[in-house]
Amino acid sequence: VVNLHGHKTLSASAAGDGPRQVNGMGTGVLIDPRGYILTNYHVVEGVSPLQVTSAEGRTVVARVIAQDPSADLAVIKIAPDDQLNVIRFGSSHDLMVGEPVIAMGNAYGDNHSVSRGVISALHRDVPVNETQQYLDLIQTDASINPGNSGGPLMNIDGEMIGLNVAVRVGAQGIGFAIPVNQALDVAARLIRRHNETTHWHGVEGRTLIVDGRPVFRVESVEEESPAAAAGVKAGDVVTAVGGKAVHRAVDFELAMVDREVGEPLQISLVHDQQARASTMLTAATPERRLSRVNEQAWSIAGLRLAPISEDEFQRITSRYRGGLRVTAVRPGSPAQKQNIQPGDVLVGMHVWETRTLENVGYVLTQAEFDRHRPVKCYILRDDRTHYTYLPVADSVRR
Questions:
Q1: Which of 78, 141, 205, 242 could connect to 265 by a Cys-Cys bridge, CB 3.0–4.6 Å?
Q2: pTM of the full predicted structure?
Q3: Could you tell me the CA-to-CA distances from 380 to 63, 132, 291, 329, 387 in Å, in that order?
Q4: Domain boundaries in the chain?
Q5: Residue 174, CB half-sphere, CA atoms under 13 Å: how many?
């Protein structure tokens, strides 16, 4: 469990007031020893720089890998000095009202605070505002205070069964947590999107509970994918990838992190109680996927985009980690109306980086993209960063 903190700029609260800067704080849980951390989106939103402090008191800067505002979850990454201790996962499929629980977090900025209580109710839906609500939450009377968000709700065995997310304002002894099974499914989806900016596998699967234990079962396999070439089939249960044990979808996606294109990975499978092993070669994300993204960007925003190599981008600027070159602008499109020009470099949309076409494809599918019209875009031109707002129409989105 780690503490998250940094500065967050809030918009003006009244006419004549300017934006103000506050100290943001929250909590995160380590889900992989290479420094991958799961937390709430609202904890990291707008925080810069985002800093992580461990239980030993070491502080490092983190970067956001992927986020889902509609689920209020984010995955961030730190560069660890040494091997990190990962939290143990329980399961939220068999929780009981009255079961004792422990909440841990950075309550009011006090590092690694612990409170205890019981599960008060299950399957609670909690509205946030007119456009968002939390679904199927765990309710607890363990104290969940500001700063606890993103921390674990644990059972008496020290296993994480939920991710602390909210407290009802003005109420005593009412806090909420996202069930761990739900949170880890979202984390798997986020890590997959991060992976697919460089490589892919072609497996669609889900976590199932079999005899009280989680297993990752393949639901389908894309044709001509690395998984298909390795003989992976629907109904297979994946038990290991590249020497890493797989129990859940998030384990499978984490096993694919930081792999080189063309790297051989041994994959262990079970089908109808028969175990077998195969070798899967990772592959670059196919052009057909990238061309689909480009067609979306063309129809929605009027932009045709092309990747820029890391070396070439560093010759342009070192202020960003990457971007996409605008190669064409459709006449009469939102992009042309905002004076975006061929040769410009798109480095971000709304809160997301646009280092690859897969990044853009991810942004275009987000509910957050729909809620933030016009969409803020960050453009690099002549070594200066400009921002503009694309008025994306409902009719175009549909």
A1: 242
A2: 0.73
A3: 21, 33, 23, 16, 9
A4: 2-77, 100-182, 199-284, 287-397
A5: 8
**Positions marked active-site:** 42, 72, 149
pLDDT tens sequence across 220-244: 998 889 999 999 999 999 999 999 9
Selected residue with higher pLDDT from 68 and 163: 163
Backbone dihedral region for residue 54 (phi beyond 0: left; psi -120 to 50: alpha; all else: beta) = beta
Q: What CATH number was assigned to the domain covering residues 287-397?
A: 2.30.42.10
CATH class of 199-284: mainly beta
331-336 LR contacts (CB < 8 Å, sep 24+): 332/302, 333/301, 333/302, 333/303, 334/300, 334/301, 334/302, 334/374, 334/390, 334/391, 334/392, 334/393, 335/301, 335/302, 335/303, 335/390, 336/302
Which CATH number does the domain 2-77 belong to among 3.40.109.10, 3.40.50.620, 3.40.1190.20, 2.40.10.120? 2.40.10.120
Q: Name the 3-class secondary structure at 68.
A: strand
Residue 137 class from Cβ within 10 Å (0-12 exposed, 13-18 middle, 19+ buried)?
Answer: buried
- pLDDT above 70: residue 131: no
Cα–Cα dist 348/376, whole Å: 8
Mean pLDDT of 303-310: 84
DSSP 3-state assignment of 367? helix
Alpha helical stretches, state H, 170-239: 180-195, 226-229
Check: CB of residue 149 under 8 Å from CB of residue 45.
no
